[in-house]
Amino acid sequence: MIDEKWWKEATVYQIWPTSYKDSNGDGVGDIPGVTSTLPYLQELGIDVVWLSPMYDSPMNDFGYDISDYENVYPGFGTLQDMDTLIQECHSRGMKIILDLVINHTSDQHAWFKESRLSKDNAKRDWYIWKPPRYDSEGNRHPPNNWGSYFSGSAWKYDELTNEYYLHLFAESQPDLNWENEDTRQAIFQSAIKFWLDRGVDGFRIDTAGMYSKHQGFKDAPIKFADIEFQPCKIYHQHGPRIHEFHKAIADLMKPFDVMTVGEVGHSTREESLKYVSAKECEMNMMFLFDVVELGTDPADRFRMHEFNLLNFKKAVKTQGEFIEGTDAWSTVFIENHDFPRSISRFGNDSPEFRIASGKALAMLQCCLTGTEFIFQGQEIGMVNVPKDWTIDDYKDIGTLNYYKQFLELNPNADAKQLNELMKKINLLARDNARTPMQWDSTPNAGFTSGTPWMRVNDNYQKINVKNESCNPDSLLSFWKKMIQLRKQYKDVFIYGHFKILDFENPKLFTFLKEGKDRTTYTVINFSTEEVEFEKLVNEDLEFLQSTSSSIKSNDKLSPYEGRVYLLKH
Ligand code: TEU
């Protein structure tokens, strides 16, 4: 018997503030902008807003580099604006969760500024400092071969004290030393308690598996012979004290009725359950990366390979069956600010099939077990950036470092190689999710009255909220319907048991969702061809919803058509 909770039934909408809604014409989204769109989100059926980092920051990694947990990035607004947003969410019966980024801070955080001053500074040990390694010729090297997630070494040399500090992400994002009790207490008070007291309803916990590093700091095994610095996840993911740390975080939150969702990264079912099994009392749920990482190497996002519908089904199955037989809870998502647009990856972003495949993905997502997350713009079918954009149109530090590294490793790259590189970047860069939100067809898509910080996707006159709001057949209108249906049949869609039928079918994705007293049957055509519809169960079917406003034939599914039925017993 599943324990029902508000945070299990919630539909969560992720806002990446830089690109969401600019209220003052400076070209950057802001908090008052977010507040102004709450009626829109409420109409969509959203219960919880997840705000990606809005803390004070030099914005090297768009807010995931925090310089002050207790303040707001001035370009986004003020603490008062946050209080208003929290209040406005609550007065509408909605909740709001923040991003908790506590694996690292910005190098501009006061803690780090102190830490770097001297080896005997009181805060020296709040970050991870190590002496250089010298070769037989006396050349200086980083302490080990660990690579950063944003290319290059994970260590940055600091002349001031002749030591290196660890940064698993950008150079300007030093990793905090969780081994130090004072550091942990400071994080708890400044990053967590401060915001709980201001009324937030929980957190999405960034890089939640990485706080506890293996203290040996050994060299990582060589995985990619073509680069100098290697993936080092085995030494920082699910480290020896990680569960002790999460139990302490959960203890701190216990007096508050909040939700927590961890971003633990790629991990096995066994490892994942240690974080989210209810009896462990750590976090409520976590994101599983099987679907979003499909076709790429989790150790290096730009190493890609082909995949087909069967691989996709397998990834959905892994996520769909994750909680079976356990007391854990799970999430459903196919987009966030770190991954390309889902229609471009798993659907079809050609003008002919964009809407149809967007509806197919919306139907799939709304039928799956777990707490549902939608990323800004997903609901209107925003897609990847056009293929002819140049590297100057990309702004993400991860993309730019990767591009730079490629040029360093291939100084004589020819036009063909550069073309290949840009193809990869176009398909997989995080920038795809980060173009300004498309509100209407006025200049800059109604995102800003000024000059947008990042180029708006060229397709905004067609794809925007205003166009879709007044069209009952739009993807946006379909999302609204599916979110309602999900709530109406929550026993089946949110809590039910997931079972794929006819797994080997290369075009159709057919599955049952079994609730306590009723079962639904979903079939979705994930191909560009018309496909024969064959009922795979004995029971009669009662029609509930289709992606198509006019079903052409009961026996045939048009390209990307999906239908949900109820089994009649
Ligand atoms: O992302 C973390 C992240 O990218 C890895 O944990 C990821 O799981 C791994 O590379 C793939 O297996 C978070 C934020 O979502 C991202 O935007 C930030 O840039 C990053 O942390 C640093 O804070």
UniProtKB/TrEMBL annotation:
Domain Glycosyl hydrolase family 13 catalytic: from-to ranges: 14-434
Origin: domain of life: Eukaryota
GO molecular function, a single term: oligo-1,6-glucosidase activity
Keywords of this entry: Glycosidase, Hydrolase, Maltose metabolism
Reaction equations catalysed: Hydrolysis of terminal, non-reducing (1->4)-linked alpha-D-glucose residues with release of alpha-D-glucose
Secretion signal span: none
Listed EC numbers: 3.2.1.20
Similarity comment: Belongs to the glycosyl hydrolase 13 family.
Protein's UniProt name: Alpha-glucosidase
Organism name: [Candida] subhashii
